Structure formats: structure tokens, C-alpha cells
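Issue 218. Parser rejects a valid record. Input:
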Amino acid sequence: MLDQIGGEAGLKELVEHFYDLVESAPEAEPLLALHMDGHGLSHTREEQFNFMSGFMGGRQYYLEKHRHMNVREIHAHVPIFAQDAELWLSVMDRTLQDLGHMNPNTERLRTTLRRVALMLVNDGKVAGA
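Output the parser choked on:
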């Protein structure tokens, strides 16, 4: 999947554009608030790239750094409702569209991202709360 968006350079552009939208698009404000309650966006931009690289078939930066790729564990501290997952997916779709990647080649990526995003819904029940 990584090759379909232009390799690591394409992934870097995708992650940066996604989080630029999170920071600037009024409809993405709830996502911004979730990220600001966590580690902040500069941390998230870096870790999103690291995770997505391995997730999309490239180098396993996140795994090398953290020794796991457990997406539920990564998000266990974040209250995620269905509308948050849908918003994340909507912003990602806009990102793919803006960068010219909304095509049949990215359908597998979109399907996989949808499955993962919905798997993370915890209805506000966070670990340690």
C-alpha cells in the first residue's frame, strides 16, 4: 500500500496534510481536542508516520521504537466514540482526495483504515479511568 501513495515521501505528505487539516478545518476541531489531551500534534505526526509506514508495508519504524504495533494499546488512553472514528475517517478521505489518492488503488487502504478506526471505539471507557 505504501508504494501506491508514493512511498515514504508520499506517506510523509499524507500525514502532514492530514494533521494540517486537523489543525485548521473547523469540522476537525473535535479531533484536535482529542490530540491536545494526549501527547500533542508534533508527537502524533511523527508517530503516525512511524506507525503507518509499517502498517502500509514499509519499514517498521513504530515497531522498532516501541516493540509493538498494538493499535488498541496505543489508543487506550483516548476516549473514542463512533463519531470520532467517523470524523477521523472523513478527514483522511479528504486528505486522500486533496492529494490525488482517492482512486481504486487506495480502496484497500480505506477499507482497512475503516476497520481499524471502528475497532478503536471505546465509548469513552479509557484504560486506567
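Fixed in the parser; the record now loads. The radius of gyration is 14 Å.
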